[in-house]
Amino acid sequence: MMTTRRSTKYGLRFIALAYLAILLFVPVGLILYRTLEPGLNHVWQEITTPAAVHAFWLTIEVTLIAVPLNTVLGILAALVLTRSNFRGKALMDTVIDLPFAISPIVVGLSLIFVYGQTGWFGSDLADAGIQVIFSVPGIVLATIFVTLPFVVREVVPVLIEVGDEQEQAAATLGASRWQTFRRITLPSIRWGVAYGVVLSTARAIGEFGAVSVVSGKISGQTETMTLLVEKRYGNFNVSGAYAASALLAVIALITLLGMTVLNPRKDPS
Amino acid sequence: MSTPSISFARLGRRKPSTKAYVAGRPGPLAVGVVMLWLSVIVLLPLSAVVVKSLDGGVGEFWDAVSNPQAVAALKFTLIVSLIVTAVNAVIGTLIAWVLVRDDFPGKRLVNALIDLPFALPTIVAGITLLALYGHGSPVGIDIAFTQAAVAFALLFVTLPFVVRSVQPVLIELDTDMEEAAASLGANGRTIFRRIVLPNLSPAILGGCALAFARAVGEFGSIVLISGNIPFHTQVASVYVYKQLESDSPISAAAVSVVLLLLSLAVLLGIRLLGRFTSR
Fold first, then answer.
1. Class of residue B106 by CB neighbours under 10 A (exposed 0-12, middle 13-18, buried 19+)
2. What angle do CA A86, B38, A84 make, to 5 degrees?
3. In principle, which of A239, A242, B20, B269 could form an S-S bond with A35, CB 3.0–4.6 Å?
4. Considering only CB atoms, which chain B residues are within 8 Å of A163?
């Protein structure tokens, strides 16, 4: 860069990399080292205890319910926001952003006030024999809440970018709405959708605050991976907590790889 | 990254056709389905918080939010979030600059790792920081259970916001203006202050707003490292959690309403910013 002096350039580079090293690279590197210190065998034992295996599958189960639901409704919401005009659109836009701005603790709390024992529908649900809070449905609802905006927010810019001329043309030529969507719209937004799905999945697997309020943390029943990490750490089983963290970190790294490959906003480097 | 696109989604928004119904577009049924989904998942629970906070009347609501411990927690949360946001504004812009304008071996890897705090579960982030900067730290720095630790954890989880919001704008920014300024004798500092910064400021502000919202509500990465000392390191979200645990739902709901209002204020701020910059 001709306008940047050499010394300034190296100085800025040094500050940026030093900050990232202190905050991010060294801590993450250390935790990986500490995890692998007792040997891979130990790590494997810690993540294959019955409680850990159950926590793993519960996390996967919750993610597999929340992410597809949010994907389908997220695409629909993105279409509605970009292709329709109706009263209350600005309000809908803001409501979709809310889960990004709200504390996960407030999310969990709000679900308790609706579905908990003394909540709005608590006694009706109890009469019907349905338990939401301190049970899997509550964890699912909390996860849906916190991952709601991701797909919408990735698809909306793509829909604006591609415009609606092709969709109009298809409709004029007699295509049904579903045909237009499947043949024209979906192919053009698929990378945006994929990116949104990756982000939702990462958040769903990693959610802690909202889930910890509604789960009740019953080992082997309502304990997700992140809750298992917290419990093990609290019980001074540090190496067990590290092992479970490492599994989550590996999932995070795979996510990161997916994000780098799929990111629609490419950098020119 | 995803979240900064909240602000950018609005920048390029074309005015949609004014025709009420155009062939091939989602109809009223689709609008209804989305409305219903949002109402059940988001609006119903949030209204329950507001209603619950007023269960004991306005007086009890006020008592709950003016409780000294609640005030201390809210105050600390606000101050530490503002500090963290300010640091992000500077260092986030700097990192984005280095990633776009500088070139060094391993840059692509560094660029990819910026998103790690978004991908890593927050509880793992907390444990990660504790391993290096907690009791028994291998580098001899123990900041566990201090206010600095809370700020540090928040810096970790909010790192990507400003970087990822400034980066695309910096990529798009033409260097012509900077070169013109340089040829007219402006030095690096003047060029940055007069040319680059005004172009970046909407993106910086957008990223800051998101970082601030995240910092105010953060729980997972803080809960272990803060030690949760009332009047010292206890943040608002942890206070709400403790109130719920000690069976004071109205107090938990009341402080949550304050947090909700803050979230709404941030979202409205982003909206106004988007409208302002797209003009």
1. exposed
2. 25
3. A242
4. 14
Give the chain B residue whose CA is nearest to the CA of A92.
Answer: B35
State both tokens at A162.
């591609």
Helix boundaries (H) for B104-223: 107-113, 116-119, 122-133, 147-172, 176-183, 188-191, 197-217, 220-223
Q: Cα(B46)–Cα(A113) distance, rounded to whole angstroms?
A: 9
Q: What percent of chain A has pLDDT over 70?
A: 96
pTM for this model (two decimals)? 0.90
Instruction: Give chain B's end-to-end CA distance (angstroms, integer).
Output: 25
Pull the structure tokens for residue A21. Answer: 């090293």
For residue B19, what pLDDT band results from cuts at 50, 70 and 90? very low
Distance between CA atoms of residues B101 and A261, nearest Å: 22
User: What average pLDDT does range A174-202 have in this prediction?
Assistant: 89
Give the other-Cβ count within 10 Å of A184's Cβ.
21
Give me the residues of B, 163-192, that contact A with CB < 8 A.
167-168, 171, 175, 178-179, 181-182, 188, 191
User: Which residue on chain B is closest to A85 by alpha carbon?
Assistant: B20
A84 burial type by CB count under 10 A (0-12 exposed, 13-18 middle, 19+ buried): buried
Residue B182 CA to residue A4 CA, distance in Å, equals 10
Q: Tell me chain B's radius of gyration from C-alpha atoms.
A: 22
pLDDT tens digits, A100-115: 999 999 999 999 999 9
Classified as helix, coil or strand, B265 is helix
The predicted model gives A48-72 an average pLDDT of: 96
Based on DSSP, count helices (H) and strands (E) in chain A, helices before strands. Answer: 15, 0
Residue matched to tokens 């308790």: A112
Q: Which helix (H) or strand (E) holds B272?
A: helix B249-277
Q: Provide the ipTM.
A: 0.90
**Chain-centroid distance, C-alpha A202:** 4
Q: Which two tokens stand for residue A59?
A: 């996390």
Query: A32: which residues sit within 8 A by CB, 6+ positions away?
Result: A246, A249
Place of tokens 């006694």: A123
Burial of B233 (0-12, 13-18, 19+ CB in 10 A): buried
Residue range B152-167, pLDDT digits in tens: 999 999 999 999 999 9
Cross-chain residue pair B26–A73, CB shorter than 8 Å: no
Nearest CA in chain A to B124: A245
